[in-house]
Amino acid sequence: MKRKNQYINREISWLSFNDRVLQEAADPNVPLLERLRFLGIFSNNQDEFFRVRIATLKRLITLGKRAKATLHYKPKKILNQVQKIVLQQGRKFEEIYEQIHNELAKKGIHIINEKQLNPEQGEFVKNYFNENVRHALVPIMLQQVKTFPELKDKAIYLAIRLSVKNKPHLKQFALAEIPTDVVNRFLILPNIGKNKYIILLDDVIRYNLREVFVSFPYNHIEAYTIKVTRDAELDIDNDISHSFLEKISKSVKARQKGAPVRFVYDKDIPRDLFEFIKSRMKLKKSDNILPGGRYHNFKDFMRFPKVGDDSLYYERLKPIPHKHLPTGVSMFDVLRKRDVMLHYPYQSFTHFLDLLREAAIDPYVRSIKITLYRVATKSLVINALINAAKNGKQVLAVVELQARFDEEANIKWAQQLQDEGIQVIYGVPGLKVHSKLCLITRYENGKLQHYANITTGNYNEQTAQVYADDSLLTHNPAITKEVEQVFEFFERNYKVFPYKHLILSPIATRQKFTKLIENEIEFARKGEPAEIFIKMNSLVDEEMIDKLYKASRAGVKIRAIVRSICALIPGVPGMSDNIEVISLVDKFLEHSRIFIFRNGGNELYFISSADWMTRNLDYRVETGCPIYDKNIQRELRQIMEIQWSDNTKTRIIDAKLSNRLRQTPSTRKIRAQEAIYEMLK
User: Is pTM, for the whole model, over 0.90?
Assistant: First the structure.
């Protein structure tokens, strides 16, 4: 029988994860401009949370009692909790930004507003505005339009109040989108001595508002930032007369007009202007109306200008060449002798690019097949595939058009690949393809040979510099034959194969991991040592959590490293005594999924593209892969143990969501990401 409080609500757990990001921004040991970047990450995370999760909750509210019966909680109650937590985090955010702002000033880096400009700076800003901003600024006089403008998602606006001093009845309201899509959010002003000065585009516009409204008889103009976040879930219709590509394109366009799920405003906005906007937008209390600071869309601070010396940034670690992949040696020659595991970002993604480039020009390579979920803005992977096609190779790309917030980019890439004669498959009907696979087929000694890459991360050289992922390169026919079968399934969805080695969702991931957990339970019941050591991004699926609870009660020792959402509650007597969960948040984003089962001493190792979330287990095409090479197994174990020993950047996951920094018996400070780099070096 289930306990009442057996799981942490996923929305509340996610907010707790984002609070760990905020802790990094608050940490005085983190370099100043990296702290500013963490504020940007926090803001970007929160935007996506509202677009997706809160939008979903608001939809579920319309189901009434049926929602509670399905979810085991009231969506409205969770929304109220979310509102409370978000307001608390917002206050903490503003305090941290003020601290960073003041600390930067001590370092000679001044983020100033329009009221702090000296005459020379004012002239510089005015010239910049006239040359770069004025043409992109289109104010709307709100009392002159019948319908209030449809505020775009992801955009920020200045709500403007024009008035005459001492004549309160003479006033007008206007609205202007801050054109961050065409003008940089940050303007670096000329240095004064050794001091550097930066002003935001918001304040550049504020400084020049009098000129914008020069034809109006108002002598007092003030502007306050507002922003709306909209429901971003794709509504794909079932009209079979339109192609799937057309449906996705249509849905992406419609996303801009999704229902509002959050309205954020400058808390200093005048009451009359605020009430006017709220009334005209028909905003309700349930629309998450949140007071904020002077600036919104803090995600832009992730790309804050490169100013200041190296002490303000993390030391950039030079990627380590893999010891088995020296330059000047054929990758195929290496892989015929051994499997190779690449650990990004410690080791370079260029090794995979080198494999693609070699395959593109190798006269014996017949085909390259790859899944593409998210690729870099200027993708070297795409370039290599196009080059391979030009060299006469058969190239197939499975492009997932439903990769959230990358739909438009993926549509563009798919069309470009098709223009180059590459066969493109748009995923699998009814399933999102989240697998990360590449298969190269080569003619050797009179027969076709396969080389495969199975990885936990995307084929994206940009994110591979900051995402911690594990990527297996193998010539093992047991694995490569099944990778070939996966691609055959992509091409002909009716062909489903039995897999002895790979673990595929939605076919077998849940069943396989359930069996592995049950196996450990049997060992524990026999009085033998039993252990499960797992790492993933999110642990949410209740059925899998219940299996872990069952294993804990049987005496299986379970350790879990979960970066973001964790619905499991560890350390509860009689339920999860034998489970410990930690979360690691540091300069690299922990993205890999690793699973280790003791198996009576004959340990089993797996990597996977799938988290233990219902969507990954049941509604996506995901691929897990066993690791058979003993050297790579030892490497993975060492990496996992290093992360478990971290006492600098790990937080304890508990029922209270306290995010306490974890203490270990070691008197030595251990920072896992730096220790892993040194180990691999």
Answer: yes
